[in-house]
Amino acid sequence: MIEIRGLTKSFHPHTILNHIDLTIRTGEIVAVIGSSGAGKSTLLRSINLLEIPDKGTIKIGEVKVDIVKRTKAETLELRKRTAMVFQQFNLFRQKTALENVMEGLIIVKKIPKEDARKIAMLQLEKVGLIHRIHHYPKQLSGGQQQRVAIARALAMQPQLLLFDEPTSALDPELAGEVLDTIKKTAEEGNTMLLVSHEMSFVRKIATRVLVLDQGAIVEDGAREEVFSNPKSERTKQLLANYYRDRDPEFAI
Amino acid sequence: MPTIFDIELVFSLIPKLLKYLPVTLELTVISMIAGLLLGLLLAIIKMKKIPVLYQISVVFISFIRGTPILVQLYLCYAGIPLLLKYYNYYHETSYNVNSIPAVFYVLITLSLNEAAYNSEVIRAALLSVDKGQTEAAQSLGMTYGQVLRRIILPEAFIVALPTLGNSLIGLMKGTSLAFVCSVVEITAQSRILAGNNLRFFESYVAVALIYWAMTILIERAIVFLEKRLDIDFKSMRKRKGDVILD
Ligand SMILES: Nc1ncnc2c1ncn2[C@@H]1O[C@H](COP(=O)(O)OP(=O)(O)O)[C@@H](O)[C@H]1O
Ligand SMILES: [Mg+2]
C-alpha cells in the first residue's frame, strides 16, 4: 500500500502540486491523465524524490518518509521501493542491455554477479529481448530501448512502478510493442502509476483513473466510471478527443 | 675535416639516455594520476559550488594558469621547506628538510599543475553526460558516489580521452623541468653526457628523438584505446563471447 499525504511542490513562483493526497492499493493500475503542464511528471518524480517536494509524507510499505525531515537513507529507501520508466528511456549508454538491467541488482541490491545475470536474462527474456542482451542502447530501436528500461525497472522488484509517458517518444509502430510489454507487466500483479496520453490503452489496462489539473486531482475513480460517467469538466474535455477519434458520430 | 655532426654518436647516446627513461616515466605517471584525481575533485567542487572550497579552487586554478610552471617549481622548492620550519616550530617537531627527496618537489608541482588544467576538461566532460542517465541511476537507489563511479565517469572518460591524451603528452615533456631540482631524468642526463664529451648538439638530438618517439607512442595508445572503447567494437566482442547467436 502506498500513501501520499499533503504532497506539495512549487517551482517558484508556481505551485505545481497542491496538497496531493493519494492512496494506492497493492495491485492497482492507476493511470494519471491531464493536459501538458498539469504536473503529471512532477507527481511521479516527487514520489521517488528525483524532484524534492516542499512538504508532504510518502509511505510505501512500512517505510514512511516525511519530506521535510527526510534523511539520505530514507531517500535511498524510497527510491529502492519505486522504479521509474522514463519518456526518453534513459538507458546507460556505456552499458549493454544486460548490464543495464544488472546494474541496480549488483550495486544497489548487492546481489552476486552471477545471480544478477540470471535475473537480468530472465527479465530481458520476458520483454522479448533475449537476442539483444549484448547490444548497447544506440544499437537498439526506441521500442527495444524502452523494453530494456522496463526490464531494468522490473528486475528491482519495486513495490511501485512509475511510468512517465513511456510511449510518447516512440513512433506509433514501435509504441505497440512497448504497450504490450506494459500490459503484461500489469497483468502480473504489479502496482503501477502510469502517465499516458494513449486513452484507449489506459482504458484497457488501468483499474483506476486520476485526472490531474493545475496541481490538483480533479477526478479519481474506477476506470469505467471515469470513462463513461466523468464528473469534472476537465475530464470531459480530455475524453472528448478520445471519443471523437474513436467514434466519429459522437462529434458534432 | 673534423666531424661536424656525428650521427653515430647520436645513436650510441640514445641507450645511455634510455637508462633514465624510467625516471621520466615515473614522474609522468605519478603526476598524471595525482593530477587526474585532484582535477576530478576540483571539477566536482566547482560543479557543486561547495562554499569556501569553491572560492579556493577558483583562485588556485587561476594562479596556476597565470604563472609559469618553472616559477611554480621554484616556489615549491623554496616554499615547502619554509612550511616545514613553521610546522616544526609550532608543533615542536624536528623534521629534517634535507630528508625530503628532490623528486618530491617536482611531483608536487607537476601534479598541481596538471590538476588545475585537467579540472576544466573533466568538468566539461562530466557536464556532457546527460541528466537522464544520472536520474535513472538515482531512481534505482544509487548514492551520488555510485552514480559518479558507475555511470558518469565511464562516459565522461570517453569524452575527455582525446584532450587528456594531449595533456599527458604535455606532461611527459614537462618532466624535463625536473633538472631544476637536480633530479636526473633524460633531459638532465643529456646535459651531463654533453658536458662530458662536449658534443652538445648530438646529445640534444638524441634526447629530442626520445621525446618525439614517446609522444608518437602515447598518441598511438590513445587512438588504440579510443577504438577499444567504441560501442560497436565492444558490442561485437561481447557477442563473440556468448553462445547466443544474433
Ligand atoms: N525543473 C523545473 N523548473 C521549473 N519549472 C518546472 C520544472 N519542471 C517542471 N516545471 C513546470 O511545472 C509544470 C508541470 O510540469 P510537468 O510535471 O512536467 O507537467 P506534465 O508532465 O503534466 O506535462 C510545468 O508548467 C513546467 O513548466
Ligand atoms: Mg510530463
Task: Provide structural commentary.
The complex is a heterodimer of chains A (252) and B (246). Chain A is α/β, with parallel strands linked by helices. Chain A has a domain at 92-157. Chain A contains 9 helices and 10 strands. The termini of chain A are far apart. The relative contact order of chain A is 0.16. The mean pLDDT of chain A is 93. Chain B is an all-alpha fold. In chain B, α3 (53-66) crosses α5 (102-128) and α6 (131-140) packs across α7 (144-174). The A-B interface holds A 48, 50, 72, 76-77, 79-80, 82-84, 86, 88-94, 96, 103-104, 107-108, 130-136, 138-139, 149, 152, 156 and B 132-133, 135-143, 146, 150-151, 154-155, 158, 231-232, 234-235, 238-239, 242, 244, 246. Chain B: It is a multi-pass membrane protein. Chain B: Belongs to the binding-protein-dependent transport system permease family.
Q: What is the chains' assembly state?
A: heterodimer
Mean pLDDT over the full residue set of chain B: 92
The N- and C-terminal alpha carbons of chain B lie at a distance of 73 Å
Structural class estimated from helices and strands of chain A = alpha/beta
Please tally the β strands of chain A and state the result. Answer: 10
Total count of helical runs of at least 4 residues of chain A:
9
CATH superfamily of the domain at 22-144 in chain B: MetI-like
Unreliable stretches of chain B (pLDDT < 50, length at least 5) are none
Looking at the structure, the CATH topology of the domain at 22-144 in chain B is MetI-like fold
**Secondary-structure element sequence of chain B?**
HHHHHHHHHH
Helix segment tally of chain B: 10
Strand content of chain B: under 5%
Q: Which CATH-level-2 architecture of the domain at 22-144 in chain B?
A: Orthogonal Bundle
Domain ABC transporter (chain A): 2-239
Membrane topology (chain A): Peripheral membrane protein
GO molecular function (chain A): ABC-type amino acid transporter activity; ATP binding; ATP hydrolysis activity
Keywords (chain A): ATP-binding, Cell membrane, Membrane, Nucleotide-binding, Transport
